[in-house]
Amino acid sequence: MSNLPLISWRPLSLRADISRFSAPSLLWVGSKASALVFPALLLVLWQVAVNRHWVSAQILPPPSLVLESLLQLWHSGDLWRELSISLERVLIGFVLGSAAGLLLGIGMGLSRTLEAYVLPSFQAISQVPVLGWIPLLMMLVGIDESLKYLVIAKAVMVPITLNALAGIRNIPKGYLEVAQVYQLGLAQRLRRVILPAALPSLFTGVRFALTKGWIALVTVELLASSEGIGYLMVDGRQMFQLDLVIVGMLVIGVVGLLLDQGLAWVEMRLQRWQRPAF
Amino acid sequence: MMKSRVLLPLLTLFATGWCALASAADAPEVIRFGVATVGKGGTPFAAGSVTGLAHQRKAVEEELKADNIRVDWVFFKGAGPAVNEALANKQLDFAWQGDLPAVIAKAGGLNTKLITADSLLTSVYLVVPADSPAKTLEDLKGKKVAQFKGTNLQLATARTLKAEGLSERDFRTVNMEFSTMSSALASKDIDGAWMPAQAFDLQAAGVARIIYDTRAKSPKFTRQGHVLVDAAFEQKYPAVVQKVVDALVKTAAWATTPGNEEAALALWANAGVRIESLRAEQEGQSFIRRYSPRIDEFFIDRYRATVTESRELGLLRGDVEVKDWVEPKYVNNALERLGFKNLWPEYDANNQPKKAL
């Protein structure tokens, strides 16, 4: 995913904006508004494509029909029902995956021996995309919820592990030397030095992982599910109601964005202590 | 600079495409024939339809040889729904498909014409894992039952459930295509599945057991198939449509000639379904009846029922006037001209042959 670098620099630059300008609100509004330009253009293009019959109306339904279906799904409660099922799956998979990822990443960060034994295999395994795991996992654990949890957990675990490891490896030597001078124990070193110093990198990992997990969820729901937002899309496609598919895409996009922005907000709060340093 | 470097070739491409389209007005170079099924493992074969036989016997190619028209066959693992998408994208001229997906597409605004019937009165089988204790539909209530949504099996299944006082909601319905069903039954991930003739394969392999046969209950619980043509194509090339229908009618006549039944089954078996299973599927049915190409009262009534029933089930938006959708003139012409009029009498809505006049 190309948004990895984006995730890591955006909070920094935002922070710089806020500290440098005394009246940042105008700038902020401007930047938010400019983000809407592209979707607006896309919407216009969509409407034009429909009006001019560039694509058949069965494949690309008009925006009005999509909106209508969205509202209908919203009012009937179906949208929330499917979405809550999907969110629950992501949450469980995310918790499992990040717990495993943190353990593994911190473990490798602290022990070069563990890293030497585990990292190459881990990297090899992480090269196999989510889609590649599904057939095997389906045979092993079936098509039930455990399949979804595992697939999401795997997607989540990889970026968290790698970012935790990188975060620890990149801690300035000086910090660790100070810790050594003060003769801090492992627990204290972890709590006072390693975790806070590795936090920015960790958070990059967490945000990236959540995006990955959300994408993995949709993938697995498209393939094997009888409920959830991905299934809503499959159903729409099978029943030749492509407006449902587009509603699903919109919801997935918006929810993914909200999840990411929510985490960005949490990240800003958690890292306040670092601000004076800049 | 960049702009013109991209734009110019694009425009040229457009222009050449346009010219190619314009010059081809009298006869197409190629016709694209979609088939809403695929053989085992994705092989390009279709079991159970005259279209599947015509494909293997190259009957359509033969008919169009003099006009130098090629035939591109496309087999869709995604079955009827995938055929609809291809039709909407103008990637197909003809297609073999089942009743429900075609009705859904027609209601959605796809402009097609039904030109022959192809495989009527087809059953749907409910299979359970071989060691499942389930014996009746009731036993599967609340259990995980697989269905390939949007195919014509879905409606035949829904009809049956309704008649039994049940509905899809009484089960945990999982959507999957047939090859996934087979492995899911083997691994007991699902408690049951609604399947086509492959059900007999699974039963023979000891993987699964058939506990329900919709056709055995009533001919109304069956599903029908047809060949359709893109309406714009039909308007433009009626002579080509006639030749394609001729080829299909000749193939149907060949298959239903006594003695050829086994040969037809053997061709279908190339799709990876055991010949015994294909034979079992025909049991109690006459080949001639099932492969009548006629668009008669029976056919129209069944498609009308498909429209009303799928509307009742909320599967359909809009409405379809079946009378305006069918175009029986090609098949009637072929039956008359080729001398098969008496081979396939017309059937009424209750599946009874009408008296020949």
UniProtKB/TrEMBL annotation, chain A:
GO cellular component terms given for this protein: plasma membrane
Boundaries of every ABC transmembrane type-1 domain copy: 79-263
Subcellular location: Cell membrane
Gene source species: Azomonas agilis
PANTHER family assigned to the protein according to its UniProt record, in alphabetical order: ALIPHATIC SULFONATES TRANSPORT PERMEASE PROTEIN SSUC-RELATED (PTHR30151:SF38), ALKANE SULFONATE ABC TRANSPORTER-RELATED, MEMBRANE SUBUNIT (PTHR30151)
UniProtKB keywords: Cell membrane, Membrane, Transmembrane, Transmembrane helix, Transport
Residues spanning the membrane: 21-46, 90-110, 122-143, 149-168, 244-266
BP terms from Gene Ontology: alkanesulfonate transmembrane transport
Predominant localisation class: membrane
Membrane topology (UniProt): Multi-pass membrane protein
Protein name: Sulfonate transport system permease protein
UniProt record similarity statement: Belongs to the binding-protein-dependent transport system permease family.
From TrEMBL, chain B:
Keyword terms: Signal
Ranges where the SsuA/THI5-like domain occurs: 82-256
InterPro entries named in the record: SsuA/THI5 (IPR015168)
Record carries keyword Signal: yes
Extent of the signal sequence: 1-24
Source organism superkingdom: Bacteria
Protein name: Sulfonate transport system substrate-binding protein
Lineage, broadest ranks: Bacteria, Pseudomonadati, Pseudomonadota, Gammaproteobacteria, Pseudomonadales
